[in-house]
Amino acid sequence: MAQDLFTPDGFFNPSTTGFTIINSYSTKGRLNNTRSVPPDIIFPVSPLATLTLGDLNIHHPTADPLRTFKEDEIATSSPYFDRATELGFTLLNVPGVFTRFSMSLIGRPGVIDLAFACPLLAPYFTEWTDPLPSTGSDHIPILLRLEAPLFRAPPPTPNWALRDWPTLESSLKATCISPVPPIATTLSMDIWFRSNPDRSTAVLAHHTPVQRVTFRSKPWWTDLLSQLRRAYNSALRSSKTDRFDAALLASARAARTAYFKAIKKAKRDHWSAFLATATPQTVWTAKKFAVGRPPPRFPELPGATTPPELNKALLDHFFTGDTVRTPNSILLPFTDCPVLAADEIGRALARASPSSAPGPDMTPKRVWKRVHRVAPHLIQDLLAPLVADGSHPPALKMANGIVLNKPGKPSYDSPSSFRVIVLL
């Protein structure tokens, strides 16, 4: 069932005023590892803001990272999540929150009620919760909240400075990687690898509070500025009650002058303190603040002027031909391959910059360094089977690529004229 709604002109897309909600109920199909509603129906190609939700009856590690999955469950759910990833849909569910509780004693809880938002709708999503009481059904009611991004605060981010390390360390030591499949194939290793990395990230997120940075959060802001701001607003309101009172007008002007002078002084003091305590690691940050950010530039290739054309040109140039995939091929271990040691992983993490930008899991490198010191078995047990069997799971190939151009016109004849930064 698809419901089209009307929104204010230009609310989601300047060229359209439509908003589509697709509610699906998918059951077991006629063939094995299929469902009654195919992925192209649930995730259509549409210029409208689209919200896809419903009981899809599929299980996937993205929605339930702590569950152990079977091969047929991954084979059934992968086409849906691959289609969603291809079209840019974002999963809105909170990972690991069960949406169905079986009425029988033998059934186990599961996450089968899913919600996805297209790229036009994703910026308006703010919250996915289950605060409502049960309605007597085996499915729990879900509350989705959408707000205009201009009138809401930025999304919360993990506050790693306030994480509970004593409790977190004991939880990390108790967290274990699931056993490797007895018969290592390309498909079984991919399923095993997909279901394990989120075990440690879920533990980190559970013991780390979140913070919401407001629009007025500035590193140079002080309590004195808050007091001067309140005094200025109070004097300004008093002056508007009687615009012919010279004393009130003079008081408002004096409060305004004192407030803005204090802001300039606070900025100068913060900049001076930042330069006085600069280190070799922060000197580049100081240079970036002094020079300013360069204007955004979009790279160009011959015959490609739009992002879809650029994406197609890069794929056709670097990835020619179709790759033959044999998911059921058995991987034979390398007998002469040395075992991946924990100290080797520690040396690799030591070279990572603690101030580098985190990946999609929002976990910086300095946190992973401490996680490895506390529980070295997590990363070792996850990567050692891949090295021993020579396996490269397709999950490692799913990354976000950002193309940055250098000065000069990029061309195929000059590969160094542009760079591709891959964020895993």
- Tally the helices: what do you get? 12
CATH class of one domain, named Alpha Beta
Shape: globular
What do the pLDDT scores average to? 79
Q: Give the CATH H-level superfamily of one domain.
A: Endonuclease/exonuclease/phosphatase
Total E-strand runs: 11
Give helix and strand order, one letter per element, not per position.
EEHEHEEEEEHHHEHHHHHHHEE
Query: Within the CATH hierarchy, at the fold level, what is the topology of one domain?
Result: Deoxyribonuclease I, Chain A
**Which ranges are low-confidence, i.e. pLDDT below 50, for 5 or more consecutive residues?**
400-424
Describe the main β-sheet briefly.
5 strands, mixed
Range of strand content: 5-15%
**Range of helix content:** 25-40%
Taking all Cα atoms into account, the compactness measure Rg is: 27 Å
Task: Explain the overall architecture.
With 424 residues, the chain is an alpha+beta fold. Helices cover 36% and strands 12% of the residues. It has helices at residues 39-42, 71-87, 165-174, 186-194, 197-206, 223-241, 246-276, 283-291, 307-318, 342-350, 365-374, 377-389, and strands spanning 2-6, 18-25, 49-55, 90-91, 113-117, 125-129, 143-146, 157-158, 210-211, 400-405, 418-423. The strands form four sheets. A five-stranded mixed sheet has the order 1-2-3-5-4, with no helix packed on it. Helix 6 (223-241) runs antiparallel to helix 7. The protein is globular and about 85 Å long.
Explain briefly what this protein structure is:
With 424 residues, this protein is α+β, with helices and mostly antiparallel strands. It contains twelve helices and eleven strands.
